[in-house]
Amino acid sequence: MDKKITKEMTISDVLSIDENLKDVLLGFGMHCFTCPCALAETLEEAAMVHGVEVDYLVEKLNEQKK
C-alpha cells in the first residue's frame, strides 16, 4: 500500500518512506534531515520555521516519493 505523507509526520518518518525525498527538502531550503530535530519536529513545524507553505511541501513530497 502506498503510504501518504502528511504534515503531521516527522522528517525522519518521511525519509523512512523514501530516502530520496532529501532532494525535495533541499529544494525548499530545508536541511533538517541533518538536524536532531528531524526525529521530533513535524513537517508542519519545520515548514513554519523555514517560511515554507506546508501544504505545497507535502504535495511535492507525495508527487516525488517512490
What does this structure look like?
With 66 residues, the chain is mainly alpha-helical. The chain has one domain (11-64). It is 48% helix and 0% strand. It is built from 4 helices and no strands. The chain has helices at residues 11-17, 22-27, 43-50, 54-64. The longest helix has 11 residues, at 54-64. The radius of gyration is 10 Å and the shape is globular. The mean pLDDT is 90.
Q: Main beta sheet, described?
A: none
Unreliable stretches, pLDDT < 50, 5 or more residues? Answer: none
Estimated structural class? mainly alpha
SSE pattern, N- to C-terminal: HHHH
Q: How much strand?
A: under 5%
Query: How many strands appear in the DSSP assignment?
Result: 0
Q: How many domains comprise the coordinates?
A: 1
Brief sketch in words of this structure:
This protein is mainly α and 66 residues long. It has helices at 11-17, 22-27, 43-50, 54-64.
